[in-house]
Amino acid sequence: MATHDIILRGGLVFDGSGAAPREMDVAVDGGVITGMGKVNGKGREEIDARGQIVTPGFVDVHTHYDGQATWGSEISPSSLHGITTAVMGNCGVGFAPCRTEDHDRLIRLMEGVEDIPFPVLTEGLPWAWESFPDYLDFLGEREFDVDLAAQLPHAALRVYVMGDRGANREDATPAEIKEMARLAKEAVMAGAIGFSTSRTLNHRTSDGQPTPTLTASEAELTGIAMGLAEAKRGVLQFVSDFNDPRKEAAMLRRIVEASGRPLSVSLAQADVAPEGWRALLGAIEEAVDDGLPMAAQVAPRPVGVLLGLELTLNTFSAHPVFREVANLPFEEKVRRLNDADFRKRLLADKPDTDNPFLQVMLRSFGKIFQLSDPVDYEPGPERTIEAIAAQRGVSNEEAALDLMLERDGHGMLYLPFLNYAQGSLEPIRAMMESTATLPGLSDGGAHVGMICDGSFTTTMLTHWARDRSRGPKLPLEYLIHRQTQKTARWMGFNDRGLIAPGYRADLNVIDASNMKLHLPEVIHDLPAGGRRLMQRASGYTATILAGQVTHRDGDPTGAKPGRLVRGAQAAPTRAMAAE
């Protein structure tokens, strides 16, 4: 009688293809799937999946673990949410290639763009590399609880080739473009999964300077893309303000037409132009219909800032009186904020700042919501601070302060700034239903004191497939397909994302009926004692990576089978023959 490494017994298997689920066993041997259906024999380990669902491991195409991967082996929070493969190096920011004299420059860019504090990066980064292949070699020696793939970041590349001129956003010369193209080809030949860039004013260094890539010319972007074309490998990832969506989309289309390389771009609804996303998506859909490899990355919930007394921002961050206690130890800060005299002074104070976000957004109490258990990322207007204040008969400021002081000062507020212009997720549903979109934008590993969206995968399973009450849901098999086979194949990971014989045994066993997303919390486990937001979930019975159980009931097992994935991966020959 055959013995297998692992057998998952009797689960409802969503194979990742989008097909209807089937109840069956799944056998695993040597890190790959070897049997499906009624599996005879025994497993050295058997997992009872009856009454639960079985999915491929999730593939997240948009994370920022570039620093964390150099000092840590647990790629959390993503690894706590069923993700078994994560792609980092998005938005044009990262740490290679880099000369010694530019270390601080790239750290300040990552600090400003992705809210990872300077002391954390200064202490944590070992800087045991200069070139991008060197960086890959360093990562290639490390072990993780997910597989990681890295993209070549444009900002680092530009500064490496152009020095101060690149940082100051001067135009690249033809010779500099040729050199960037050469290095891009070198990077993908060494195993970079692609190239990323940013064209948004939202991305600035911690001292306020725009990202070096903001105004890079079409000639520069096309030249770099042609470096990937010469290598015949690698994807392109863009983020842009899209002030003129059709003009910008036309440029991206020309880059794809010239290079033939797949290109994805971030897509979200902005308050200032609530319908603007439709033109961009329409242009991408038109390109896809014409046979071009283009896609829009979309998020399954609002992109929102968390506000709280232990976080980067709160509703009083711009108030001079609050600054008196801002840097006190947390417990002392909470004690002072509960003091009647101090509260009176604070609530009578006014913001004093030139920062438009702090001036306007942190005063928009009709758009700030209480974040409470159970977590709801599609809250109604009755959950706004404005509504709660009216119900309590207090000022907006007092209501906000009291809510943040809940749970011994750990209360959090939620300020959606993208994808919630009309107080509904219907625009997101339309984006997610488009064949030209991919799930993305989780930013796992970034925005450690403001945003905690590495849990996007859990939101898709709970909110969109099970709990949504303010509009139509989406089929579970469709959502799982998008987060597994679709994202895997977009990146060129053809050996995963599907439950079929010969494919990698990257799997989740999920108690979908009882799955729950927990409130974000602050932990202090980064280098230099740095804090970060962490969000956990109940319901992940087991996560399996390359045939090893990395998580049981949401907790790490200590297994670290994850490795750096160098470039695209071929489909297994056994699976190809079966297909």
Automatic annotation (TrEMBL):
<keyword id="KW-0378">Hydrolase</keyword>
<feature type="domain" description="Amidohydrolase 3">
    <location>
        <begin position="45"/>
        <end position="550"/>
    </location>
</feature>
<dbReference type="InterPro" id="IPR011059">
    <property type="entry name" value="Metal-dep_hydrolase_composite"/>
</dbReference>
<dbReference type="InterPro" id="IPR013108">
    <property type="entry name" value="Amidohydro_3"/>
</dbReference>
<dbReference type="Pfam" id="PF07969">
    <property type="entry name" value="Amidohydro_3"/>
</dbReference>
<dbReference type="GO" id="GO:0005829">
    <property type="term" value="C:cytosol"/>
</dbReference>
<dbReference type="InterPro" id="IPR032466">
    <property type="entry name" value="Metal_Hydrolase"/>
</dbReference>
<dbReference type="InterPro" id="IPR050378">
    <property type="entry name" value="Metallo-dep_Hydrolases_sf"/>
</dbReference>
<dbReference type="GO" id="GO:0016812">
    <property type="term" value="F:hydrolase activity, acting on carbon-nitrogen (but not peptide) bonds, in cyclic amides"/>
</dbReference>
<feature type="region of interest" description="Disordered">
    <location>
        <begin position="550"/>
        <end position="579"/>
    </location>
</feature>
<protein>
    <submittedName>
        <fullName>Amidohydrolase</fullName>
    </submittedName>
</protein>
